[in-house]
Each structure stands twice: as C-alpha cells, then as structure tokens.
Amino acid sequence: MSLRDRLQGALKEAMKARQANRLSTLRLINAAIKDREIANRSDGAEGLVSEDEILAILGKLVKQRQESARAYEEGGRLELCEQELAEVTVIEEFLPRQLDPAEVEAAIAAAVTETGATGIRDMGRVIAALKGRYTGQMDFGAVGPMVKARLS
User: Fold this and answer.
1) Cα-flanking dihedrals φ and ψ of residue 137, to 5°?
2) Can you give the pLDDT at residue 45?
3) Of the four, 11, 28, 119, 150, which is 20 to 30 A from 102 by CA?
4) What's the pTM value of the predicted model, to 2 decimals?
5) CATH (domain of 87)
6) Range of the domain at 147
7) Which domain-ending residue is among 92, 120, 136?
8) Residue 13, CA distances (Å) to 44, 88, 96, 98 in order
9) Nearest to 26 by CA among 51, 71, 58
C-alpha cells in the first residue's frame, strides 16, 4: 500500500471516528502535498509527487512542529506545546523508522566507500547517496556535520 493510500485511509478513519485533532493533522499533511503538486505543475513537472517527496514533506512538517513546540514551551504555553507534539506523533506514523546513531554512522561509512569520497569536496555526492537511500529515516541536518567530520 502506497504512502498516499495510507494517508487517505487514515483520513477516512479519523472522519468516521470523529477524531478532530487527528483529522486536522491529516488534512494539514494533504494540504502540504497538494501545495507541492501545484508547485511542481507551475515548474513544468508532471504534478504528482513521489513517495520520496512525500517523505521529505513529512520530515519537514515534523521538524517545524518540533521547533514550534520548543518555542511554545520556552514561552510558557504548554497547552500549545502539547498540541504540536500530538501533531508530531500523528505525522511520524507515516514516516519510516528512524535510524539509531550507530546505524547512521554505518550508513555514512558505506556511502563514503560507495562514492569513493576522499575529501570535503565529495561531501555533496555522499549526502546525495544517503538521501537516495535513507530519505525520511535520518535527520540530514545532523548528518551533514557528521559527513563533514568524516571527510575532513
């Protein structure tokens, strides 16, 4: 079952079960996907987004929610923080399992070997190889410095 089908099924289930918070989060995900499809059409692409693009969108949504939750917590708005974290939980249901730090290190080592990277100039190729294989499974904001350290 494709990710898009899983999202649609979850949306229908949330409607039937009258789960307002879950429903609003699922609608938010669908809106983000639609926005990307519209942007692709205006760029001359086919329009439909791929599974990898959907995973990237979901990852971005999670990151946004986590940053907002942190800001709300610092501002003393705990009810809004809890709401953001609840949205993160719903979004993460559709993301693949996150790799643990040891698996990330092993993936970086394999990508460096596979691409034949020898220096910092090869960092882009290593990151591209990792994104091709592990989209949605690791935080590439944290992986970048790890790759840089390995190639230095």
Assistant:
1) -105, -10
2) 64
3) 119
4) 0.73
5) 1.10.1510.10
6) 101-151
7) 92
8) 35, 18, 21, 25
9) 58
